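Bug #2210: token dump truncated for Protein inhibitor of activated STAT?
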Amino acid sequence: MMTPTDAKVMINNFRVSELQMFLAFVGLNKIGRKEDLLTRAFQVVDGRNFNDRIKSKIRELHDSVCANNIANMNISNGIPLRGIAPNLGGPRAQTFYSAALQTRQQEMGIAAQHQMAVQDKPQKMIGLPFFEVLESVHPPTFLQANNPAVKIQESKYQVTLKAETINRITEVRDIRPGVLVDYPVQLLLRFSQKTQVDPAPDAFPTHFNVKFNGKAVQLPQPVPAHRQGMEPKRPPKPVNITSNARLAPLVPNLLEISWGLELGKKYAFQIELVRKIMPDELLNVVKKRSVISKDLTKQRIREILVADNDIAPESLRLSLKCPLGQSRVSLPCRAFPSCRSHVQCFDAQLFLSMNERKSSWVCPVCNKPIQFSELALDEYFSEMLASNLTADCDEVILNSDGTFVPVPREEKEKKGPSTSKQEANGDADLVLLSDEENEDQNTKQILAPRPAAVQLPPASPPPHPAEPEIVTIDIDD
Ligand SMILES: [Zn+2]
Ligand SMILES: [Zn+2]
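Reproduced locally. Full output below:
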């Protein structure tokens, strides 16, 4: 089956002569520049009469282009095709084998090129948590260099919106006077680079600019390069082009993309009609998901504290404050499985509201890339917050059995800023009881005695834990 995209990939490789043959075949004007012929041919593919008869004509013309390319390739490479025939039956038989092999090789060459043309489709792009895709307005399409001799390429595309598409945009748009028009349903333009990464993330070509209906599209502000001499790059993000669109059916919209040709790099674009999803909607989705069970968290705490080696810390601390803000976490969440290494949580609501405009997310605790589908509330942390912790408590010490004690205020006052570390980067690196062999440190802290533990969940209000004391030992070197 030939999809319209397949057909366009093939037509894109047509020379002027094939374009003219094709336009004559469908009864259209075949006079004009190559660009105009191409636009006309694409309109046929996008049109209502794109039928099997037209498809087989496209295939036929495509195959003749392929055959031509193969022939040219063989001539230009100067490699004659020669059969390695068994030497039996004399020179005549050898000629026969040679001819047969040549035909076979040509067939294979055509087939390979043909397959490449059809299969070399742009990749699917990463789904965006804050947008629900309603329909594809322009399928993923590779940017094609019209003139490989120049650095900056200009690619033009016609985008026609269906009446239904326009209705979906206009019936919900906010056009109160004096307010910037807001489009809850919008046309989203996205770019990706062809790589092994599947699905593909957003990626912009260099020297990149977009006009929609003659007006410049607002692109993300370029970020200065880290290295000197490098040009600033625009952070790749989906681009809302709705405000430039002609929201009338059958009126063509002109998309103009200028981009820098880069050796070996291939970029594609696509336009989708999307609905913006509000952070609260996403929060409700997260709330309805099954939680990260407390057993799983306790198991992880045990693993960190009772590791079978010397690097196991004696104590593990958990901050009740969200690493994104300075207030206490109210909806503790983590990404699972990406964040299975750490038990520290962040606040779901704060995280979602802060990441609304980002197309890729990282965990604020361990900096790993995370997906929306991974976000889940943490049962252990939730129950801890629901237990009798005082309002001023912002840190707890975890024990290997899953119990915890609040870090007393006295200790917090005593400890210097550099002597205690919080669990971060997925490593539990807080060591209160140091190893004697550690020679490069002359001040060591010992936490003694082990404070009484609070059971989880608390059956009755937990007793006030015994105050731990810090003993500081100075070692003379
Ligand atoms: Zn072919
Ligand atoms: Zn993480």
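Output looks complete on our side. The longest helix spans residues 90-119. Marking as cannot-reproduce; reopen if the truncation happens again.
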